[in-house]
Records
---
Amino acid sequence: LLAVGDELLEGRYADSNSAELARLLGELGVEVARIAVEGDDERTLAARIVELCAAHELVIATGGLGPTLDDITREAAARAAGVELVDDECARADLGAWFERRGVPMPQINLRQIRIPRGSTLVRNPVGTAPGFALPIGHALFVSLPGPPHEMRHVWDESVRALVAARLAAPLGRARLYLFGLSESRFAEIAGARMQRGADPEIGVTASDGRLSVLVTARVRGIGDAAAELDARARAAADALAAELAPHVYSRDEGRLELLVARELAARGAKVAVAESCTGGLLAGALTSVPGISASFERGWIVYANAAKTSELGVPAELIAKHGAVSAEVAEALASGAAARAGAQLALSTTGIAGPSEGSAEKPVGTVWFGVHWRGTTRTQLLRFPPGDRERVRRCATNAALHLALTALRGSS
Amino acid sequence: LLAVGDELLEGRYADSNSAELARLLGELGVEVARIAVEGDDERTLAARIVELCAAHELVIATGGLGPTLDDITREAAARAAGVELVDDECARADLGAWFERRGVPMPQINLRQIRIPRGSTLVRNPVGTAPGFALPIGHALFVSLPGPPHEMRHVWDESVRALVAARLAAPLGRARLYLFGLSESRFAEIAGARMQRGADPEIGVTASDGRLSVLVTARVRGIGDAAAELDARARAAADALAAELAPHVYSRDEGRLELLVARELAARGAKVAVAESCTGGLLAGALTSVPGISASFERGWIVYANAAKTSELGVPAELIAKHGAVSAEVAEALASGAAARAGAQLALSTTGIAGPSEGSAEKPVGTVWFGVHWRGTTRTQLLRFPPGDRERVRRCATNAALHLALTALRGSS
């Protein structure tokens, strides 16, 4: 993979396109051997294209297809292949139509974008002005795609996936698991040799604020392995792992806790309310990221100050004075109060110490109490997150609250 | 820059370390010529290190320093330099102390991490188990840093910045501007040739959910350019640009709107409350990301349902029936209601259509009304964001609310 642009070398953006392409190629069973990022210099880029095409079967470049003079991927590819640039009439028609739809005249400079190396296949781009192209260079296929991530993804879905699959795809089987409350290193200990490169099936894991996303991949061992058999092998390995880690597995097909909670709520016709202290709005923000959540979520409170806990949700001031705001008692009173005031069957509360300061020996930074009210019963839970990063403590606490909600909803059937 | 790890080639993570390092190196005036991402294969990695060290003055690698067998940066660097790995006693002492502080015995496998190539300088890592090292290879300096982003950043700040500055830094002048409410392409039109590579001073811009972060860089033209003169040149160019774009400039030194709002609140001893509909908690979440905000922020409401707007904040049901929930009238009533109920001088409200559906011809997806109450007066503002991405509409609306708050606070002196 080759990402092109001075803005990447200057650190103004991270190269997210290559990671996205690597993931998409992985779904086709195509392994990425290396990723290179190059600046907007035509000769240097041409040399890199030659080098990459000599060593690999497929080279996919993103970026450098805009209309301005510092967009040089077209020229560099032509130089690498030893061909000239030619106007593509299909690209001309697409570009004309693009500006016509917007009711603005096409600037002359955009005509640079209809030039592609002779011998290329055009990769049409209906969502931008930059078409891509696919060009054989030596034994490799060089594919140039637009840099804006949504354009890259659009042309991948529309045409490039099929082009790559036809040339390179190896059949493989896939199965997934989503876990909560297990560290990545503990997972690695349990999965052991199954995570080694080349293991069959091979297990990969990604951690994100308390969640683990596990991917099990089965590859072809010999000629004649059917696709169904590969899937069955991946699923069997995932089943075995799920059995070992049962209490942590919360889904086989969807990692977003807020989406799973929203689905369970919708299935039960139940409503949810939130009373947030340390998460400060992030829990409501996660729930309201789900389109259509307004059927299940009507209101929430951010009760940062003790007086707000009392006046908005009826937490007795004496309770706070006696146990402190970060306590099981206050977490319970917040959740019950929110459920009662909102008329919701489910209510979630958080109260904790996100940091960086204000921790104590008894309640260090990272201490969070959760309250989960579900149909008349309120349970509480204490969790301690690693201190040191206020936002990470808040994000982990948000996910933990969602996971507790999911457990409560599912336990009720 | 060289990022090491199969997880990067598989697209499980994007290479954020290289972008961060490119930005940090840019601050020292050091230009990044290329970025390479390699997998966990010792021989391939060693060959790449040799190639990069032959072509560049400095090569900084991140990742591959963990304790497990697939962490092979130490071995690859030793192979590239033609030296052996030796135990480092300082690393041994640091590692022992690290486990002792946690009260757990050190697993034998972690001893791999105290081995560094002979001739290296140890880069101590107080926040993790993986020390880095700096090793001359040919004419280049090869620096290996731990992969976890917070560890990488910590050792950069502690020691690597100074190491690199002593070897390579070119003096340059810097000035910044932060703008709101201007598109990146409109900015590029105005800045024109000043954004071209090699312009002096050169202007760069990064967009993020409605904010633009502008960096003006002046470089040495000839021997004897003093650092103060470079700064003055950058500042003069930033001043000229700020004059052209005056209504959009909100800061010269800090881009985080929530932090600027928090500072203005603290300076005035004022309190803020929020009443969120379409932003659904993200506005409170942004404010509460600022440590110490509890002195200024006590409570907020997420009033998604119309009934919640009425019962929590006193918005008359007839007002909603007459004008619709997404209206100036309701935005105003939400902000005034939140200010009154919270006893806050400043109150912010949002009500809009984040999408993906539920828009109309009159109020398309992306329509958001804002209310800003400040010391007895409530103003409203309508903004329309590009539809199509629910989360982007919500993030842009959050920043817009913060920008309106900042304008109100500053206008009051």
---
Amino acid sequence: VPDLNKPVAKAAVIGLGSMGYGMAVSLVRAGFEVAGYDVRPEITVRFAAERGAGTVTRAASAAEAAANAEIIIVVVVNADQTSAVLLGEGGALHAARPGAVVVSCATMAPERSRALAREVAAHGLLFLDAPISGGAVKAREGALTVLASGPEAAFAKAAPALDAMAATLYRLGDEPGTGSSFKIVNQLLAGVHIAAACEAIALAKRLGLDLAKVYEVIKSSAGNSWMFENRVPHILEGDYTPRSAVSIFTKDLGIVADISRAENFPVPVSSAALQLFLMTAAAGMGRDDDASVVRLFARIAGLDLPEQKA
Amino acid sequence: VPDLNKPVAKAAVIGLGSMGYGMAVSLVRAGFEVAGYDVRPEITVRFAAERGAGTVTRAASAAEAAANAEIIIVVVVNADQTSAVLLGEGGALHAARPGAVVVSCATMAPERSRALAREVAAHGLLFLDAPISGGAVKAREGALTVLASGPEAAFAKAAPALDAMAATLYRLGDEPGTGSSFKIVNQLLAGVHIAAACEAIALAKRLGLDLAKVYEVIKSSAGNSWMFENRVPHILEGDYTPRSAVSIFTKDLGIVADISRAENFPVPVSSAALQLFLMTAAAGMGRDDDASVVRLFARIAGLDLPEQKA
């Protein structure tokens, strides 16, 4: 229950996809007055209608959303979009109040995060490099994991919103870029593990194994991964409704590829995984669940995978 | 405490490496009379000396070890060695008693296991396709996982030994080859996850991250795997004493490569992982711990990984 004697904290959420929507819901639940904005007008309208005008303001631009906010949460797809909604036409930094904090949640190369931090500082605002993990359900529950880095003042200013949105907050250092680096290392592993799970399940099918039994055995064996355990049920149920889409991993393993090439650093395993996600997207499944990599194998080799129950 | 009124069960253990040694210890503890044999005479001698002549007989050949055994456990490196100790000069099948069961524990292509089953049946013995998982410590504790397939009669005959050696027995069907297929799917994932863990940790080091913090964060995130959690501590401690060697994965991912090529089936992620293990072996680390893949990255890129405390 919000304390009615406390002044209402004001936050902006820029980017109202499934993550941003859930984060805004968590902020409202914690007593924040939230101004929401998305570049897609229909999403902003739907958001305001669903949440009721009393607590959520529908903004016409990122600038309007940010104008009165102490905490500006940017949860768009990538660095380019983050840069556009902060610095582009109608961008948040044109209207934001000095001393406010920008919480940058998109997965991006650490160098992009550092560059954004410099731009934000030049406008007199604080910046937190704060990529998130956990998916849409945890976003709505206020149970995300946040991998954050930035100066103490940015953490302090963002704290009430982080409390409302996250179950686990990792404080990873004073420098922007460190949070993004941790996120990228996590995404490298997550992407490889999904691709490997799909490769293994497809080979198991080709070898004539009972896939439900394979799931049971591997889940309790040294071959298990968080992603194997989480994604293989989608395959067993034949349900490729996107909980997290193939396009997330063409993007995130693409960032791994960019960073590693810029560093002259070889990443052969994640490169192979990226190619599988690209093939799956090229085959028309980019917006489907990321376990669709197994359907790529199935199409290539004519495997008969489980189909969704009607 | 063994029941002294019960007739003593007799088992042979052929192959006294770290796994076979541990399995023989578990059998002795359960009251078996064990005849041990290894192609390396010094290992057979050391084994007999350590265990005491009262319970363990040192055999001069696989045939001698198998001559009085009801359960013949073959735990050598691969299909070729299994075939040699069963069918070659001094092989177990030349002396084994009809009705005994051969428990085949090496990781091998399913087709090789089916071929061995036919040879064993032609000699009037039972055959269990029974690859194992868990490592040397669990072998000594009698806490292995066994992925077994074969006829009911083979399971029944082998049951007392399986009880002594395994914490978890998966019964995966009536046909030899199925147990081997499950093991191969597990090894595909295990190998990819080790290679990915090493790739991710190496990239994290290149990006300047605190590796202990990376371990802490990833362990609690969607990028975690059983292998990441198990192997990264070796890297943090700089300890590459082989708990499981690089050469195990050049072998097992080599079997994945053989099977998948024979099936005309693409396995791009595990192929990339195999190449990393081969590079690590080529760089002279084949007998070191499989986390040595990270040292390959370190050598290539001049990374300063943790060193073992003196």
---
Amino acid sequence: MTMTPRDCPLPEFADVLAAAARIAPHAQATPVLRSHGLDALAGCELHFKAEHLQRTGAFKFRGACNAVFDLDDAEAASGVVTHSSGNHGAALALAARLRGIACHVVVPEGALRSKVAAIEAYGATLHHCAPGIAARESRCAEVQRATGAVLVHPYTDPRVIAGQGTAAMELLNAVTGLDLLVAPIGGGGLLSGAALAAAALAPRCQVIGAEPSGAADAYVSLQRGERVTAFTPDTVCDGLRGTLGEPNFALLRRLSVKILTVEDDATRAAMRLLWQRTKQLVEPSSAIALAAVLAYREVFAGRRVGIVLSGGNVDLDSVAALLAP
Amino acid sequence: MTMTPRDCPLPEFADVLAAAARIAPHAQATPVLRSHGLDALAGCELHFKAEHLQRTGAFKFRGACNAVFDLDDAEAASGVVTHSSGNHGAALALAARLRGIACHVVVPEGALRSKVAAIEAYGATLHHCAPGIAARESRCAEVQRATGAVLVHPYTDPRVIAGQGTAAMELLNAVTGLDLLVAPIGGGGLLSGAALAAAALAPRCQVIGAEPSGAADAYVSLQRGERVTAFTPDTVCDGLRGTLGEPNFALLRRLSVKILTVEDDATRAAMRLLWQRTKQLVEPSSAIALAAVLAYREVFAGRRVGIVLSGGNVDLDSVAALLAP
């Protein structure tokens, strides 16, 4: 019953298309936002895909919803399980509730309280564990054995990757002629899904991942040509501390995705700028994409740039620290 | 050249219509936002007019733009002047810049630094004065005499009232069957404009002003049937500290507008809720409208309610204090 990343086939663009149809009754078709002020500041034309306005406040709902509604009734009967410190857990909980099945979420110690509260509010059963990927996976396997629930991995599951790809697909359909498309990268679900969509819909569009310097495993992995998994994340971007997944790595390599690393200070400044100029409450893990554009101006100068604003689940109790210069 | 509130005729709905046409090339037609979560919490159906997404981050641009573009060339030649601690100043500065004329803004000591910076960024000339309406008006008259600039009062000017009325007009056109329409009240420009629009477009819709308990001059004025001007505002809503204007008072009385007073704690809680649930960065002076709905549940239960989210110019340096429980 246990499904490990190694068993996962790589999703294709057809899976993204199927996901779009599957999640359409449940997910928001989020708007694309513009800001002339930010265009002027960045020296390029920015198109923001507003996934912080997605249900549960993050793009994660797309992948979770696709995975849950792709299960046949027999699979779905015992519910779903995942490990998540945040947005994926809430997304899976809501998707399961919409299908009327059980949801178990393994939550590592140290996860943001506000995000854990959201997972619970959407009706999931919480299972606590120590931090770190090993503890998360082993606790998850325990819950699987005990309940028979189907694992929906936060970023290696091909149904999740295909679901996340629908965000970029909508953006590419809404805005023609994008030269570059920037999305944050943690485990790589969003970015590999975006790369699938761009390769099919806009092959000249360069897909770029924005990664925290303090958790730059994807950057190093693509440089070395092999997946690096031994690192200790140190970044304000709580949603980007995960380890690049195997299928995600394979897709990013195959589709020539580039990674730009960003310092946390630049991410915080970009978040502040987004709050001020667009009045949109995006979280640090989301603001990093604009931070990359501002930090590598020469890459983007004069180009038409898509940015995925991936989520808006800011911990309002620690907002002063986030906004400190 | 000096124009006092007493000289101002009361605007009519035809002026709102004319304003809509006049500002259309410049102002945003802002979206109407929904939140099922907030509907469930409030026990009614909420339709949020997103004026924090208006240019300069507040509805104020509508009135300022209408006033500036209504001037004939001879009037416009010497520019415009106003007194403002915030959003109206920035709005007038941008409107003047779009018309290519000078703008002078008298700014009282104690105004939010971030708002004063915005006024300056839009190209206005700043003139500082002591706080309080008397000092503001006398400094303003000085600047008028020195420059020949036309006064555009922040809320008593009939062109400003008519311009503000376009926000409610758009909301009423977008959402049919509103039972109630709630807008914040400071000087009364937004609320009296909204009342004009509602009286013409939805006469059964009750218009309600949300006013801070610590600056409840409109509430007291309508209770007594005469305008109260002697009070010292004490509220976190920096945009609602003004004194109800004479034409505004007359319109609110004539159009049977009701006022609900709201404690600052309730306003802060509503702001937090809006940030969490809608990811929209609205300022306290704006969140007060939702706070009124939550504080007077019986008035709104089961009804279709329009809410004007009037602005999003939050001072990010003091955000922790705003969010404290």
